[in-house]
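[scheduler] slot 2 assigned
[scheduler] job type: sequence-to-structure, two independent chains
[scheduler] chain ordering preserved from manifest
[runner] begin chain α
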Amino acid sequence: MIPEPNSPFRIFAEAEMRHLLAREVQRCTRYQDFLTICLVRTIRSGRGPAEPEAPVALRIAEMLRATDFVGIIGADIVVLLVHTPDTDAAMITDRIRDRLQAGDLEEAGGLRIGLASFPTNATSDGGLLAHAEAQLQAARSE
């Protein structure tokens, strides 16, 4: 976990986030539940992807339920929306995008978001990450 002083929210490091994703995919498979993964990539004007910043991850965590998880994998902030089908996840990510872009991210270059839902888009943790990454790339060309 990435320590954040004075914050009630936990931001998981890469190894922990990968473990949580694999665990939640197994749970969803067993109980035929929903899960959506959301990759958020902050973009600096003219310089491509930025290093994920804990303050951005914390702002995202503040918008979510206690059952959801926020962490970092590579250059992306990863959000696991547990028990959330893809239609509801799209509304949640729109709310995240609107709130973050209303702040200082708009001046920094904005952000891109890629979604993948279990079982609609993939049924494995690797498949979910790959689909969400493809959505991020598609957002780049829009």
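[runner] end chain α
[runner] begin chain β
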Amino acid sequence: MAERTLGVVLFPGFELLDVFGPLEAFGGLPGLFRVVLVAEQSGPVASAQQVRAVADHGLADCPRLDLLLVPGGIGTREEVENRALLDWLARRAAEAEIVASVCTGAALLARAGVLDGRRATTNKAFASRETTAPHAT
């Protein structure tokens, strides 16, 4: 099986567990997955816990992604208004084989129109936020 590229999106206020929990699982499959961290700009990005992770790529120079993972976190509240990120998510989701989110990352996919016509779940405390996204169904 050919190596697949997994892109994990970082944004200010992302939830550490939503990123590094899945990465621990994918990291246990060497040769099957290449993991890249992507943010609006490459470089350090502060999580909700103020721990920084380093984005390998910015949106403009991100390689082709076979899988796309969007974490949740308190930062989704602001990122649902980030048109550059939302447009990038819509384009990249259309090209990826698999698109997944963790928790409130679903809000970003909904706002980008990726969830149109699809069922999705998220943290129940934030469900009304998801359903008020302009493209959510």
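[runner] end chain β
[qc] chain β: The chain has five helices and seven strands.
[scheduler] slot 2 released
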